[in-house]
Design a protein that fits this description.
Chains A, B, C, D: InterPro entries: ACOT13, HotDog_dom_sf, PAAI_dom, Thioestr_dom. The structure is a homotetramer. Chain A is of the alpha+beta class. The first copy, chain A, is 24% helix and 34% strand. Chain A is globular, with a radius of gyration of 17 Å. Chains in contact: A-B, A-C, A-D, B-C, B-D, C-D.
């Protein structure tokens, strides 16, 4: 791809949706990523959700966008920390995701999030994305958070 | 937080925006994350962008959402690979992000993406997010992609 | 710590063991890390080992050295890929490790390594370190490798 | 490789070096990895070292062992935190490494470690490994540590 085409790929301004996107309310990224999530199972230290891959979360290859997967790791990690009774989910320190196979539109996936550790100050959650139909792993991520004590700063 | 509250945090259905979100077109996640990105500098193996943090990409703590940051690492990594003349950006293998400080609404940030390696089959890009005003690092990520040869499968 | 002390911490030359270390044979790092590993279970895509934490692998805090843990993730990942019948374990693309709790000298730990994906070109293995006595997770890592086709370069 | 061969690859006991390795003193892993490191430059928040790749740190492919690289990321990260005047380097939370090209025996490499953030409780250091001769990146890692306050537990 020549540099002019890369520029067009990156700069989305002036597209059909410019006005719609620019007028979106604060924190709209969360419903955009999470809408359609259903909890299948919830307990202390574990949250299992289902999601049917919606068209809006596809990438140009028509599989679940890697950025959406990472955002789901972020959100699922916070949900698990909430189940431990923490008054806050703290601040993110690190997120990583391995992408293992593609998930297609309409495919039902399971998002299984487990606390690996919830200490006084550091919590780590692992998140597995699996195809419900094939049982194949789609992605695996980990989310590390710092849980600040009331009066301290990270 | 009790489990019923966590459930409400995760399941967004029935909210004010349910219809709006459910009717979004395919691949809408990209303009939502990318709208407003401007290229400051582009060359072979390097893309430097600016973004003024928009309200829609905030988290509940009112700083740039960690999932949005990760999605930007995903997208910036692909843009850099395009600048190397690769006909495709391949498929994501791994993304990681360290979160270093918060970025607030209206803050202008620089997103500096560099190819660490673009080989025949594996490419790795690093992405630095910096506050233009303070020069402080906001986040650092890496994006690893597999560049499939025409006839092969990952 | 003042900079002169940091310099002394980093530069080990002139210590008691300088001659011993400098005369070590090629590839000695592997037996140093692996000596004492026992296989508890091995099958296609899975290798479970035991290790009693030896004094030589401790850090200055007297728990299993984070570098040794990372080296074990490296080695365990390769072993799992061998079980899949691959003629080579390929080259490492990425290793990550989350450290969850300390392992002490004489403690018996289980190292459970599972293939998350072994494709034609990319393999990903997860590795869990658990205390046999307490069942507590000590660390969790992932190892991504590229499996080159006979005639290609990464 | 058949499973019996994988078992032999993993279980090093009974080898020529068994006695030597088993009688190594406590914390010997550090001089084994660090012997030969020279500091080229040291300042608050930055440590640049040189290392000539020694035979003992090679892998079976005769390049610098990925486990040794990860151990160096661990150690370099701690050294940088020491330069900030922290009384302790804390405990490791996460280490990650991307492997970009091989380093051969006798090759002189530069290990450049920079503090990305040293806060009250969380520190993050990036580490670049570069070939001095070719200028090529060999690896890039990040090391996240938790710096416990005197009276608190992670």
């Amino acid at each position: 791809m020549d540099l002019e085409s890369v520029k067009k790929f990156v700069e989305k301004d002036g597209g059909d949706y410019e006005f719609t996107v620019d007028s979106m309310p604060a924190r709209f990224i969360e419903p955009i990523v999470m809408q359609g999530l259903k909890i299948d199972r919830i307990e202390r230290g574990r949250v299992v959700c289902s999601l049917t891959v919606p068209p809006r979360l596809l990438n140009t290859g028509n599989t679940l966008h890697g950025g959406a997967t990472a955002a789901l790791v972020d959100i699922a990690g916070s949900a698990v920390i909430y189940t431990m009774g923490a008054p806050t989910t703290g601040v993110s320190v690190e997120i990583n995701v391995s992408y293992l196979s593609g998930a297609y539109v309409g495919e039902e996936i399971e998002i299984d999030s487990k606390a690996l550790r919830v200490g006084k100050s550091v919590a780590v959650v692992s998140v597995d994305f699996t195809s419900k139909k094939t049982g194949k792993l789609i992605a695996q991520g980990r989310h590390t958070k710092y849980l600040p004590v009331a009066t301290s700063k990270m």
